[in-house]
Amino acid sequence: MIKDTHVPAEEMQRQYAYAQMLQKQGLGLKYCIVTLGCQMNVRDSETMSGWLSGMGFTQTAAREDADIILYNTCCVRENAENKALGNVIWLKELKKLKPSLVIGICGCMVQQAGVGEELKQRYPFIDLAFGTHNAYRLPEYIYRILVERQRVFEVWNTDGEIPEGMPAKRQSGINAFVNIMYGCNNFCTYCIVPYVRGRERSRAQEDVLDECKELVMGGTKEIMLLGQNVNSYMGGGSAFAELLEQVSRLGIQRLRFMTSHPKDISDELIHCFGRILNLMPQLHLPVQSGSNEVLKRMNRHYTREKYLETVQKLREVCPDIGLTTDIIVGFPGETLSQFEETLSLVEQAQYDAAYTFIYSPRQGTPAASYEDGVTMEEKTRRIEQLIALQQSITSKKLAAQLGKAEKVLIESASTRDEGFVGGKTPRGFMVNLPGGAELIGKTVDVRITGQGKNTLKGEMVNK
Ligand code: SAH
Ligand code: SF4
Ligand code: F3S
Question: Pairing relation of β-strands 456-460 and 443-451?
């Protein structure tokens, strides 16, 4: 039985009332949100930005200019946490120069057991900390800090209810993230996400469709549907394929989704790639390891053979599909031959790109107590070998695009080369081409003329 409850409408109204009270005070403050971690956090930051703009505050990218600084943190690997903490500690100096500065920290790192309390005790210059489940209460918290002069530290242990009807200030008007579900039930043994994002809960189909409709009407060109495991939307079965079909009919130019767990990917979903024209031929399908023994100890519920069969089916349905993946190197006890199985899987799967990570023990996860005889030196050697292999495959994949005619959705002006813009092909390759800012948001015909390390070069063709 799926029990997806919403934050009550009255509670949401209360939050809007706080935002309005602050807006009426005409404080005119500036805020800066620093976002670490994955797309979930990016999307959450857009909501926080929506709330803060509704208070009449303006966004700044420079922390030095801000009156309110919020760190939206990640804890998926140790280095993500170190980065957040290092940054926040640096803010102490900023606060010495501007004592009225409000420093807040939120997101996955704060949601871990005991972290909120620890931040409160150890860092008196932090004014605000909240977890992932109560983030929708930001207006109330800001009110309590600015008007009632309190420090606010609130982290809920209960799984979040689904908040609907929140504002959003999106990063881009061209491509947008849309959450379809929150949380994860998979408990891969290395992963902290289920502990900090709670159990799976799905947004109602009509709420997802309403958000997508609004985006399409507002001129958004590309939608990325987001979930930790989109295949289990509404408990699994065909619900996700159905949702995809519905969203595709709203008239969005390009549709993508992530992430898909290989254990749950259905034939029905695979066939969507052959059938739904605006579903882009791209899939992120994290494999994590090429060794069945390691996959078992990771609690992944598929084998290498099953995974490769899925890859083959996808290529049969959609020969030009671009596959990307995530791989963990040096899972506790990973032997050399098990690592070599990962190398051979990468050879076989022929990914466009792979995101590779050295295993990082996360407190409270089962794998953190697994025995690990492999040295960091050896793990580093392994990841370098894997990166080199993937780089050679990526390079080959890019070379195969040379001379092709592609439709590129221009997303931004290049920050490196003046007079250049960048955008993606349907398959997800990034292309840089000569052009001006007037092209941003347009889909142009491009001939691929060259390749960089991970990107393509092109030229517009007149049709
Ligand atoms: N829900 C998504 C992504 C989760 S986190 C999925 O299931 O694919 C993104 C990636 O971080 C994971 O795919 C995994 O490769 C990596 N990761 C997660 N926990 C990790 C850990 N403890 N150490 C190293 N990498 C990790
Ligand atoms: Fe983590 Fe596994 Fe859930 Fe992905 S599916 S978020 S890797 S527990
Ligand atoms: Fe994402 Fe990091 Fe949280 S990967 S879900 S921001 S722990």
Answer: antiparallel
